[in-house]
Every structure is written in structure tokens, then in C-alpha cells.
Amino acid sequence: MPESERPREKMLAYGCQSLSNAELLAIILSTGTRDKTAIDLASGILNMSNEGLRSLRDCTIEELKQIKGVGLAKASQIIAAVELGKRIALTTKGNNYKIKSPDDVSNLLMEEMRYLNKEIFNILLLNTKHDVIAIENISVGSLNSSIVHPREVFNRAIKRSSSAIILAHNHPSGDPKPSGEDINITKRLIEAGTIIGINVLDHIIIGDGIYFSMKEQELI
After folding, report:
1. Is 158 in contact with 122 (CB distance < 8 Å)?
2. For residue 1, pLDDT beyond 70
3. Cβ atoms within 10 A of the Cβ of 133, count?
4. How far is 220 from 149, CA to CA, in rounded Å?
5. By the 8 A CB rule, do 202 and 166 touch?
6. Average pLDDT over residues 2-29
7. Which terminus of the chain is more solvent-facing, meaning fewer CB atoms within 10 Å of its CB: N or C?
């Protein structure tokens, strides 16, 4: 391949926006195989389903390793890059977004969280006007008091000078009805927030296309 057409050189000369999805993925892969260039290998990965780039969103290392030429190292690089992209999107997409009701939280998070196969606990950091400053991931896995600790939650809020927060997590079952542990953790965080001076406005549980607002249902 002419040097000017190689993905890295092309990105350096024209910017990453000039690269195709296959070329960007080729840079992540770094190398191809004996029979395929990195771009050929990247194209094969993107064509493993009719969803193209979207297929990488929920792909696993095991699924990627089934593709000829993709071992543990390349599969891990892809999964890591996809996860970073998810986290960046979740952190930044709420900026300048105003929360007026539980519907606003649902509109912001539903498509991101409704299909997750693990429980993800996030907090929305708000300023005094209830604009979203950022969305921070606190934990992955079934909620319990050991992994959702007030120290971790409010450390993030204090660092970003938040005046209020909204708790949000998903139920992979699709049913957003809160468990007893969900309610207990919420009350514990509200108590901690009262002492610190940062209001916990609501806890939204995301299901499959539906949500549960603890504030709306008068559980808090």
C-alpha cells in the first residue's frame, strides 16, 4: 500500500475524520495477518454482521476471537476502544442538558442503558440550574452498599462542584421496579447528601423502554 494511503499516515496528513471505519479500526488492530492487511482484517470484522460498526457495541472477546486473524490481543484492543468510546459518550453527551422531570433523565439515558446485560450505576451531576455537568459511572454489577458507597458518589459530585445529583441505574431484566436494596441505597445516599449539602433529587431505574422514578412514586 502506498505510504500516503496507510491509515496512520493518512490520519496524520488529513485528520481522523478522513478515515473510513475500517481504517480507524485498522489503526486499533495495528497489524494484519500473513494473508490480510490490517484494513482487510478490519473490514472482515465490520462485516461479521449486517450492523457494521454497531455490531462492535455489545461484542465480546470470545466472539471476536472466532474471526480468523483475531487473537486475544486484538480482541482486547477492540473491546477496550469500544468501552472508552461508550464512557466518553456517556460523560459528555449530557453537557448543557437541563433536567426538569424524570422524562428528561429517561430521554437522556434510555437508549444507552436499556439493553445493557449488567447493572450499571451512574450519577448525573447537576449545577444550580439543574443543567447536567456530567454523567459519571460509579459501579458495574448488582447494587449493594459495598460497591455504591457515599464516599465514591459524593467525591465525584464535590470535584465537579455539583449542587445536586440524580441517581440512575438499569435493570437488565427490563422490569424497572426497585428492589429493597435499591431503596435502601437511595435513602442512605440521600442522608449523606443532606449532611454534605448536595441534594439527591431522584433515583431513576431504567428498564426496557420504561423507567421508574422513586421521587415520582413517592418512595423518597
Report:
1. no
2. no
3. 19
4. 18
5. yes
6. 84
7. N
Specify whether the CB–CB gap between 126 and 163 falls below 8 A. yes
Q: What is the pLDDT of residue 95?
A: 58
Phi, psi of 184 (to 5 degrees): -65, -45
pTM: 0.61
Amino acid residing at 103: D
Question: Taking phi first (over 0 means left), then psi (-120 to 50 degrees means alpha), and beta for anything else, what does residue 171 get?
Answer: beta
Q: Output DSSP code: residue 167.
A: E
Share of the chain above pLDDT 70, in %: 91
115-164 pLDDT, tens per residue? 888 899 999 999 999 999 888 888 887 665 556 888 889 998 998 899 99
Whole-angstrom distance, CA of residue 132 vs CA of residue 214: 19
Task: Enter the C-alpha cell of residue 97.
Answer: 442538558
CB atoms within 10 A of CB 35: 9
